[in-house]
Structure formats: C-alpha cells, structure tokens
Amino acid sequence: MEKNPSLIHEIAQRLYEERKRLGKTQKEMAEVLGVTHQWYGKVERGSSGPSLEMLYELYRKCDVDIGFVLTGKSPPQTDLDKIVEDCPKDKRFHIESILRATKALYSETSGK
Known about the structure:
The chain is mainly alpha-helical. Helix content is 72%, strand content 0%.
C-alpha cells in the first residue's frame, strides 16, 4: 500500500491543531506520548506518519478524538437544548434534573 502524501499532511495538520488546543509544545507532547521530540516533529510536519501506539497514547493520555485526527470529521454533537425544548413540559423537569446532576458530577471530577 502506497503512502498518500496529502492524507499524511492533513493528519499532521490536525495533530498540530490538537497540540495547540492542548497548549503544549512539540517537546511536551512528545514527552506525554513517550516519543522523541525529533520524531514527533517529523510526524507533525508530515515527514512521517503517526504510529498506532502514538495515536493510542494520544487518545488515552490527552483524550484526543482519533477519528477526528485521521478523518477530520468529528462525531455529531447532541443538541441538548433541542432535546429539552422538544420534551413535553410535564417531563421536562426530569431531563433538567439529569442535566444538572451530570454537570455537577463533571465539575467534581474535572475540577472545573
């Protein structure tokens, strides 16, 4: 199977975007992923493709959507406002209670 240079560069660009979103330098990202910063730099420039191990660590340690990195497509987002709006008024209290509890749990576990 031949390498697709444009695909590798697209993946490299998305890796760069994700690293910037995480607020990390190439060296910091390489340390998190357990690779050399030279190799990580090659991957981000598109000179080399990412390994499966690197992608797995990116997902595991940084919670990066690997589907997005590989394809550029994010999973569809659920419009919670629309769900609540479409819910019958007599049932809306239950959904709102679940959403408040979920938000509180997320705040506790993430420190936000």
